Amino acid sequence: MLNPRCLLAVALLLSPGAAFPAGAEVPDGAALYESHCAACHGDDRLGGLGPALLPGNLGRLAPEDAEQVITEGRAATQMPAYGEVLSEAEITALVEHIYQAPEEPPRWVEADIRGSHRGLREGDGPGAPVFDADPMNLFLVVEKGDHHITVLDGDRFEPIHRFPTRYALHGGVKYSPDGRYAYLMSRDGWVTQYDIHGLEKVAEVRAGINSRNIAVSADGRFVAVANYLPNSLVILDADGLRPLAVIPVANDHGEGSRVSAVYTAPPRQSFIAALKDIREVWEIPYADGAEALPVYRGIMHDYREESGEAPPIDRRRFPVRRIKVDSLLDDFFFDPEYRHLVGASRQGGGQVVNLTVGRVIATLDIPGMPHLGSGISFRHGEGLRIASPNLREGRISIIDPERWAVVDAIDTLGPGFFMRSHPETRYLWADVFFGPNKDVLHVIDKETLEIVETLRPAPGETAAHVEFTHDGSHALVSIWEEDGALVVYDAETLEEVRRIPMKRPSGKYNVGNKTAYIRGTSH
Ligand code: DHE
User: Fold this and answer.
1) Quick one: which atom of ligand 1 is closest to the CA of 168?
2) 168-185 pLDDT tens trace
């Protein structure tokens, strides 16, 4: 149902020209915004019912596509079409306005985060799952087409529930260690806690204006949110999403930085974050007492032991260890023991940071634009290897973590985005996301590193992002199109066994694989 302010916007649609003075020659984008868009997208463009309309948030939408959305509306959302109401010049002026940075940089401080928090259910939810399926072999499948998630039974390959999400989720869905709760993040900074057993939302909070990803601590107590805007890392209570700490991200001179990504490092009991504008990696330990790394013992204590409802924000609870690196990092991956971080910048090349000694110990010669965030580790002979797709070149780089050297390269039919494997399968799966072969998936033998099969599940349509069932017997692939599908393959015979229609499915996340951090899946 439309909210009252949106009804106002729709009413204005029926009275074209009311937005700006008659006779004005150059349409006033700001006035048009105020009249037609502010009701849903916020007076300050920070978003509301509709997404935020700030240059950083719009970075992935070309201005001509924005013009098209304003003219034609957006299917399966409440965004109406303005093509009959506004002239081309007015739409162009509107687009120019929303792609301009506001005079005052938008602020989103701790009070805003607290103010945005909403509890979404009464009580603690059911004692047992309300469905008849193995909770550890469920998949949450993100459908970007109409901003929904499908909860899929990974044994029967049947959807058991479907629910709406915030606009434009990004990054992997994360789970609590027991697999009961899922945590979702939208690019506009909304974090949602979802009770998988009860099939209901628990709480949500807006942790930033433009966010990158989230991580859940291995002990299940905290959710860390990496923000571009503002330059901050936000720590939330995983049980209900109350904010616990807002950590400003800046260098010694007070110059802020966007956070590229944050992940949890279970054996270290810490969050690790890469920064986009400062040559540093940050480690934020979250364990208390004896479990904490020796250097942090005594500093941390459990906020739950305190009396009072909302613990005051105290940065000492989440001290930051700052590790210098040689170049800016856009994303990274860990070695299987979480002793090292392998980071890459979009300019190419990789850096290996030893997290124990806190410095760069090797560089990797990887051409193009390695996508190490989608890297996976896998067993190869007696040893281990790390594979990284490349966003710019049709090749997969194979890294030996014993020697920290690139030891092999697999040529593919084009640049890829995601890779997956599973300890129980012989194969690595890699997509080709860009170019004329975007409909292709390569299946690669882990031992010979040869492509053994090139699948084209829907010729001409993008096929991407693979995830395995918990036992590794089946691989699920997205046909990444508006009227797309999830295609289920037998992981041994590579035969298709099921095709489930979905709205632009993107990532899919198996509860058991993610909570066990199995080798071959995303962390
Ligand atoms: Fe992602 C994960 C960064 C563009 C879909 N992407 C991630 C993660 C990071 C990242 C840091 C890890 C988050 C996690 O799981 O915790 N992505 C970036 C970029 O920097 C980049 C290249 C540019 C940008 O605008 O952000 C980018 N990503 C995209 C897309 O264009 C994709 C294909 C479509 C979309 O949804 O926007 C996309 N990214 C994904 C998906 C994951 C992801 C599906 C989760 C992968 C997983 O298996 O865990």
Assistant:
1) 36
2) 999 999 999 999 999 999
**DSSP, residue by residue, 69-132:** HHHH--TTSS----TTTS-HHHHHHHHHHHTSPPSSPP---HHHHHHH-EE--SSS--SS-SSS
Side-chain-side CA neighbours of residue 502 (13 Å): 34
d(CA 65, CA 473) in angstroms, rounded, equals 40
Which pLDDT band holds residue 3 (cuts at 50, 70, 90)? Answer: very low
Whether 506 lines ligand 1, by a CB cut-off of 6 Å, is yes
CA of 196 to the centre of ligand 1 (A): 23
The answer to whether residues 198 and 130 touch, using CB atoms and an 8 Å cutoff, is yes
Final residue before a domain boundary, out of 324, 358, 390: 324
C-beta of 507 in contact with ligand 1 (< 6 A): yes
Q: Answer whether 339's CB lies under 8 Å from 351's CB.
A: no
Domain that holds residue 41: 1-106
* Pocket perturbation via mutation, ligand 1, pick of 58, 147, 169, 170 by most ligand atoms within 8 A of CB: 170
144: left (phi over 0), alpha (psi -120 to 50) or beta: alpha
pLDDT in tens, 54-105: 888 887 789 999 999 999 998 777 888 999 989 999 999 999 999 998 888 8
Residue 331 in any domain: the answer is: no
Q: Residue 239 C-alpha to ligand 1 middle, in angstroms? A: 25
Q: C-alpha distances in angstroms, 435 versus 422, 485, 517?
A: 27, 20, 32
- Please give the average per-residue pLDDT across 369-389, as a whole number: 93
Encoded amino acid at 270, one letter:
S
Q: Is 198 in the pocket of ligand 1 (CB under 6 A)?
A: no
Domain limit, last residue, from 91, 106, 121: 106
pTM of the model: 0.89
Number of domains into which the chain is organized: 3
Question: Considering Cα of 94, then 98, then 101, then 104, what sign does the dihedral take?
Answer: positive
330 CA: nearest ligand 1 atom: 20
Q: What residues are paired with 397 via a beta bridge?
A: 388, 409
Can you say whether the dihedral through the CA atoms of 203, 505, 417, 382 is positive or negative?
A: positive
Residue 145 sits in the same domain as residue 13: no
Distance 261 CA to ligand 1 centre (A): 10
Q: Which CATH number belongs to the domain containing residue 486 in this structure?
A: 2.140.10.20
The continuous run of DSSP H or E covering 33 comes out as: helix 29-36
Distance from C-alpha of 461 to C-alpha of 161, rounded to nearest angstrom: 26
Q: What is the mean pLDDT of the chain?
A: 89
396 within ligand 1 shell (Cβ under 6 A): no
Q: What are 106's two structure tokens?
A: 């938008």
- Preceding amide of 459 cis, omega within 30: no
Verify whether ligand 1 is closer than 6 Å to residue 261 (CB atom): yes
d(CA 131, CA 323): 46
